[in-house]
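Reviewers asked in the last cycle whether our approach scales beyond single polypeptides. To address this, we selected a multi-component target totalling 830 residues and predicted its structure end to end. The input consisted of the following lines:
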Amino acid sequence: MARRPAKPRGDGPLLDIRDLRIEATSYPPGEAPRIVTIVDGVSLTLERGKVLGLIGESGAGKSTIGLSSMGYGRGGVRITGGEVRLNGRDIMKNRASGFRALRGREVCYVAQSAAAAFNPAHKLMDQVVEAAVRHGTLRRAEAEKRAVALFRKLSLPNPETIGERFPHQVSGGQLQRVMTAMALCSEPDLIVFDEPTTALDVTTQIDVLAAIKDAIRDTGVAALYITHDLAVVAQVADQIMVLRHGKLVEWGDTRQIIKEPRQEYTNALVSVHEIQHPEKAPTGTPVLSVKNVTASYGGGRVKVLKNVSVDLCAGQTLAVVGESGSGKSTLARAITGLLPPEDGSVTFVGRTLAPRLRDRTKTDLRELQMIYQMADVAMNPRQTVGTIIGRPIEFYFGIKGQERDRRVAELLEKIEMGKGFIDRYPAELSGGQKQRVCIARALAANPKLIICDEVTSALDPLVANGILKLLLGLQAEEGVAYLFITHDLATVKSIADSIAVMLRGEVVRYGPKSRVLTPPFDDYTDLLLRSVPEMEIGWLEGAISGRRMASAGN
Amino acid sequence: MPDLKRIPLGAWFGLILCAIFLFAAIFAPLVAPHGMGEIVGDVWAPASAQYPFGTDNLGRDLLSRMIYGARTTILIAALATALSFILGSVLGFMAAVAGGWFDTVSSRVVDLLMAIPTLIFALVVLSVLPTTVVTLILVMGILDSTRVFRLARAVAVDINVMDYVEAAKLRGEGTGWIIFREILPNALSPLISELGLRFIYAVLFLSALSFLGLGVQPPEADWGGMVKENKDGIVFGIPAALIPAAAIALLAISVNLVADWVLNRTSDLKGGRGNG
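The resulting structure, written as structure tokens, was:
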């Protein structure tokens, strides 16, 4: 393959970042604009063909560092200090044309949300070969041949023809692999993977992860792998760098970081998820009893729930587990009355609930609350925290004015947030705080049951851990029952009393936690359990070879 | 309240001009040097210290008529815009939230109204009905509300599927709360930018109607009518018709500058507290 303009290639490490400093201007409420430091004095080196994992919570600066390797600052972010040496030269001395020559040829980027990163109006193949063809690395025909070979290597179905499809015609996991192929197509020296599997189901994540790992090994490309999930990065990285608040916490071999962390913060990351939750035995009549519920979209054409029956006792937690499309969120919609079931009944505190939302009494509505996955769209961005939490108090109990404000303050106390938040808007809160406010809004109604729809899956592990502890604490205090919808089995272990595993609209396994999580497993539960990343080197290979069925999203 | 120092230059310009126009409109009898219909001098007298803009085709003071004209023009345009916004946005939001037959019927009626060219429709209606200020406002307001309906419905359909609206519905909130407390605050930015535009369209529409003789009737002064009265002078090089025309343009620009600024502030999600 004739490579026309030769790529610069120096001796020494491929990427050498020294004392990187990245800043942005922020506009805090009521104050003069000030400059915030996002990344402060971080240095790293990366040898050819090696993988460095960058790990940390949101706001740790890991994506910003990743993008700095291609000289890019996202959203007004400026690289103000230090050197970024790629292939032996300082790329920050480049002009615009120099950056253009570099991006997509020496360094490629794989984004978190492939669905948002692909242009929906162009076929996949056109987008995959674009960089290689535009840089003159390959001719169109050569590039397509290489793309097909990469599709095959990434075990995509129909590698010859998948390039003819549009982005919406393939699944999320496939799209993420196509994006990896796109990054590999122009034979770069370095690929920046920015949380490539975070948005995927666990069962799909494992396939994508394996595909990425194989592709890195076979092509000898170096990679920066950015994620907040230590167990994931342990599978692919040679070295791991832990970041916090834009500063380096710890940098070492993968084995050393996960087995012998030297810093307290790394230790907290490694040992997260270990909440001990003794299972409560089912007692008395259930607070919620779902009997033979069948529901469908499109007037009966698409059956999404088939004959689902579950019970939930007062003050306990039922976890509903499954992949996307398994019907677990639809079950919540059927219970709340947003999607009236076609058949079957929902009994709540001894009353049979009307199938439709609008036929339900105010008490039914009040005692059954819901918390959403995306806290930032679950709150009206134009209402203050005081209004958001105060409205249910006003609406259900008719309490107004000072008494309402006092209750709001009490609730803020309960969710471990101070009084100062009452006048804030949702945009002024962090992700964890937003979810806490949503919890307070649900609690304000004094409910008997709260449906939690993937409440922790959009959060950083440590923050999610805090939310789970808060939920468990509130359950002990208020005796509220949770219907906990999730795809994350690790979360389930730490919160559930009983578990229902769902697949394609049916409950395939249901019972107390201890029984559901004890072998022998059915194939699907086995797949789910095996797909939860473990913080063990070599876990990935074992999990892939040991499973008995392929994941649905593959 | 907005920090006065942070108002951009363009907004200042627009605000000051709007204030002048409004002041002139509200206090017209006090500000105007002469009466509205009072013949004070020669026909089409040139500008002088006594008549800053000269006189019109009947020898009336142009400045005084401009000031009284501002009153009529702005009042009718403002009321028509207010009517179109209240009607259009409430119906549009309701169509989006309620859906079903209400949405279908109201959307088709709006389509039907929009299919007929507005000016011709207004001409037909106004030639049948007696031309009073009230009919003018009603006709202009209802015809304009179709545009607002379209916009409001489109915006509200997007907002209606957000989780926070679903949360409000699950709480058992009525349509009123959902429309005015959940949807309206989030639909405000596109509506406000449209408000400025619609007001200007109303001014232009009214001027066009008056120019065609179906709007404000003489001897009442209004800018469009004044262009019509003085248009014959243009042939003789007399600028009397251009002055009300320029006033229309200036009002259009200044209102839009203010609307832009308001839009900037309302699109901020931190209550206007942190906007660079």
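The domain at 288-518 of chain A is CATH 3.40.50.300 (Rossmann fold). We regard this as preliminary and will revisit it once experimental data from Aim 1 are available.
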